């Protein structure tokens, strides 16, 4: 929410999107305080996933996926802290790149032309970054992003019905649950902003969107790692870090000499 009377380190707001949070209410260095800090758990979850991917010896695509989640969360922090248009791209463009990466992870096991798909997705992502920077898409960006997400759902459902493990299926259900709740938080924050801004305590719907989508990405990545380990015959199982955070543990077959 714009407030021209508030002193800010970053200068006037130039972004094309603002959320339902009072600008610079807590610090002259952070435009949207809660929307910025709510990305910290997302970075930590991505880091945990990255460490597990390394330790379990998964393919590089999964490490890149976790790093992509981390970059997206950091980019979102930078954008919400500054509300500058040039830094808005550090939030929105990585969102598209991340979905393109999910498409590669989801479809690559059955893709026969191994170099064609990653080349196309890379060029598509690069072209989008350039066009989006100059065109400053708003509604088109959202429609485009939703369309890419919808392309991932059929493949996720196929993996779900092919997986018999109860704990792995629970991860897929948590993915759907966090996506649904996160979307509701985002919609409420956008649609009812004027009413919410007059409440004594702002529920910070967009901050909850960040947290829920951080969990959503973590659950999706863990589920996909489980499915990939099954494809490779690694005997995966879902275990829990500190008793509550699920992760994949694999038992690779011993190499024959």
Automatic annotation (TrEMBL):
InterPro entries: ACER (IPR008901), ACER_plant (IPR044219). GO terms for cellular component: membrane. It comes from the Eukaryota. GO terms for molecular function: hydrolase activity. It is a multi-pass membrane protein. Ca(2+) binds at residues 21, 23, 32. GO terms for biological process: sphingolipid metabolic process. Pfam families: Ceramidase. Its main location: membrane. Its cofactor is Zn(2+). The chain crosses the membrane at residues 33-51, 63-83, 120-137, 172-192, 207-227. It is found in: Membrane. Coiled coil: none annotated. Zn(2+) binds at residues 80, 206, 210. This is Alkaline ceramidase 3. It comes from Urochloa decumbens.
């Amino acid at each position: 929410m714009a407030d021209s009377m508030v002193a800010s380190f970053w200068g006037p707001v130039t972004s094309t999107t603002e959320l339902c949070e009072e600008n610079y209410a807590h610090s002259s260095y952070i435009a949207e305080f809660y929307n910025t800090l709510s990305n910290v758990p997302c970075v930590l979850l991505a880091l945990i996933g990255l460490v597990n991917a390394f330790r379990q010896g998964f393919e590089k695509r999964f490490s890149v996926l976790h790093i992509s989640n981390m970059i997206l969360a950091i980019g979102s922090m930078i954008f919400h802290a500054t509300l500058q248009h040039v830094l808005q791209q550090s939030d929105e463009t990585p969102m598209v790149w991340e979905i393109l990466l999910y498409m590669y992870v989801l479809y690559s096991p059955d893709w026969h032309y191994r170099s064609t798909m990653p080349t196309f997705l890379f060029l598509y992502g690069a072209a989008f970054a350039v066009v989006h920077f100059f065109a400053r898409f708003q509604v088109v960006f959202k429609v485009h992003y939703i369309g890419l997400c919808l392309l991932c759902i059929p493949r996720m459902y196929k993996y779900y019905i092919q997986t018999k493990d109860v704990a792995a299926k629970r991860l897929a259900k948590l993915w759907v649950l966090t996506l649904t709740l996160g979307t509701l938080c985002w919609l409420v924050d956008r649609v009812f902003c004027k009413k919410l801004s007059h409440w004594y305590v702002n529920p910070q719907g967009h901050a909850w969107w960040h947290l829920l989508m951080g969990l959503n990405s973590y659950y999706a990545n863990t589920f996909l790692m489980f499915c990939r380990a099954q494809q490779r015959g690694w005997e995966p199982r879902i275990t829990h870090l500190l008793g509550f955070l699920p992760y994949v543990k694999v038992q690779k077959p011993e190499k024959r000499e």
